[in-house]
Amino acid sequence: MAGRQAVKVYLDLLSQPCRALLIFLKHNKIPHTVELIALRKGQQKTPEFTKLNPMQKVPTKLDICGFKNCNYCYYDAILKYLATTYNVPDHWYPKLPEKRARVDEYTAWHHVNTRMHASTVFLQEVIFPMMGQPTNPAKFEKALADLNGTLDMLENMFLKRQPFLCGDEISLADLLAVCELMQPLCSGRDILKDRPKLLSWRSRVQSALSDSFDEAHSVVYQIREKFTAKL
């Protein structure tokens, strides 16, 4: 990685994919600079940011070549680009096609399962009340039920008898998943507390990521303290 100019990333650390990207950069010691974009203030809609990313979404990445990976729906593409461009350990996004396909399988499934359902719980329980909108009880209960179904799949389809979602070592799949499943903690809701298999997995992921995990999730812990203090 010597001689490379730092990658510039635009992030809001309340965003789960943004945290995943920051953890990956820090943990793998990829040179980078961060510009924080506050979505709650609409900073992604400024003319300056819109020039960088017409989608007005984060994370956004801009590197020395001017390569932009802007589409928020493809945040995993930013991670895969970095994993294949920089000299990071192979377990993140393996070169062997059979192993890589397992990571790709999870990331394709992730968008409309782990991400969708954990995000909906967070929106209903935290964001909407913060914006002065009441939680919709029916939608909230459905979101919890959908999320429980997803957690069942994580345990029974992906983890099975292996320590990480795609094998014996941590991968991009685990990184994306853990950041999503941490999000409901903002309200003090630990969705894994009655699931020992997933709790053990989260501990392994957190241990593998060391300090970068807690640093990136400091905003989640801060919101949890404020939210639970009001209860």
Automatic annotation (TrEMBL):
GO annotations of cellular component type: cytoplasm
Annotated SUPFAM superfamilies: GST C-terminal domain-like (SSF47616), Thioredoxin-like (SSF52833)
GO biological process: glutathione metabolic process
Gene3D superfamilies the record matches: 1.20.1050.10, Glutaredoxin
UniProt domain GST C-terminal: residue ranges: 96-227
Any GO molecular function: glutathione transferase activity
PROSITE patterns in alphabetical order: GST_CTER, GST_NTER
InterPro entries: Glutathione-S-Trfase_C-like, Glutathione-S-Trfase_C_sf, Glutathione_S-Trfase, Glutathione_S-Trfase_N, GST_C, GST_C_Theta, GST_Theta, Thioredoxin-like_sf
Cellular compartments annotated: Cytoplasm
Subunit text: Homodimer.
Protein name: glutathione transferase
